[in-house]
Please model this.
Amino acid sequence: MIRAAITGIGGYLPEGILTNKDMEELVDTSEEWIITRTGIQKRHILKDPDKANSDMVVGAIQNLLSRKNIDVEEIDMIIVGTVTADYPFPDTANLVAHKIGAKNAFGYDINAACSGFIYSLVTASKFIETGTYKKILVVGSDQMSSIINYKDRTTCILFGDGAGVVLLEPNEEGPGVQDSILRAEGAGWEYLHMKGGGSKNPASAETIANDWHYVYQEGKTVFKAAVKGMSESIHDLLVRNNLTHEDIDWMVPHQANKRILSSVANYVGIDMDKVLINIEKYGNTTAGTIPLCLWDYESKFKKGDKIILTAFGGGFTWGSILLEWAY
Ligand code: COA
Model:
C-alpha cells in the first residue's frame, strides 16, 4: 500500500514585525489584553509593496529545496492553500511554478481559509496514494495583512503573514497520511468572511466605503465553533482508528488563539506538552500556521510518531489528519 509521507519542510516569514506595542499605537488595545486573550506577542508582515503571497511561497519552497537534494524539475504538482492569492486568477500555484522553474509541475490553489493546508494535504495525498505522482509540494500561505483592517481591533491583533510547505512522496513501509476527516458548513459564512471583491459584490466605491475588502469576524461564535469542530473531528478520527489520546505523540493545531488550543486539548484529553504552539511568534497566518508549526518543531519528530493535524476556519471548514512521521 502506498501512503503519502512528508519528507521535507520549508518555511518563510517576511522581515517586518508588528508587536503588541505597535498594535497599541494603531487601535484601542493593550499588550496585556492581546497576550491574555490570544497568546500572541508579535506577527510578521510583508511590507515590500513589490512583493505578494507568491513571493512568500517561493521563499518557503527555496528553503525546503535548499535542505533537500532534489531538482526542481522533479516536482509533479504544487497545491497552495490560501485565501490571499496574488490575483483572483490565475492561481498562485501557477505563478509559483513559473518563478521556481518547476517546468514539469501543474497545480492549483485551494481556498478553505484556515483549513487550507489540511484540505490541500489530503487532496495531494490522493495523487500519491494512487501512484499518479511522486513529488508534490503542499503549501499553506497567507498574506493576511493585505485583507486586514488595521482600524478594527477585534481582527487586526490576530493575524500575520507567512508561508510553509511540505514535500509529499510515496512511502510503502507504513508512515505517511493514515486517515483524515474533513468537514464543511457553509451556513457559517456569515460569521467569518470577506464580503467584497467576488462575483456577489465586485469592487466598487460602495464596497470600499463599507470596508467589505477586509476580514469580518464574529470572534465569539467562531471561537466556540472552532473548539467544537476540531475536538469532534479529532475524537472521531481516534475512535475510527482504534486509538486513544495516549497513542498520540504530538498535536499540531491551527494557531488561531491559545485558549482555543487548550480547550481542544482538554476536550480530547491530550496533554498540553504534546500540543505544539508557536502562535506567540507569528499570530494566525491562516493556511500558513500548520506547516510553519511543523517547520519550527521538525527536530522533535521521530520516525513512527503519531501526529494529529487539526484546523478550523472560514466557510466554515474544519477537520483533522492522522499522520505517521516518516523520518
Ligand atoms: N483589545 C481590547 N479589547 C478588545 C479587543 C482588543 N483587541 N478586541 C475586542 N475587545 C473587547 C470587546 O470589544 C469586548 O468589549 P465589551 O465587553 O466592552 O463589548 C471585550 O473585549 C470582549 O470581547 P469578546 O469578543 O467577547 O472577546 P473574546 O474573549 O471572545 O476574544 C477573540 C476575542 C477575537 C480574541 C476571540 O473571540 C477569538 O479568538 N475568536 C476566534 C478567532 C479565530 O480563531 N479566527 C480565525 C478562524 S479559526
Remarks:
- Residues 175 and 183 are 24 Å apart (CA to CA).
- The two ends are 18 Å apart (CA to CA).
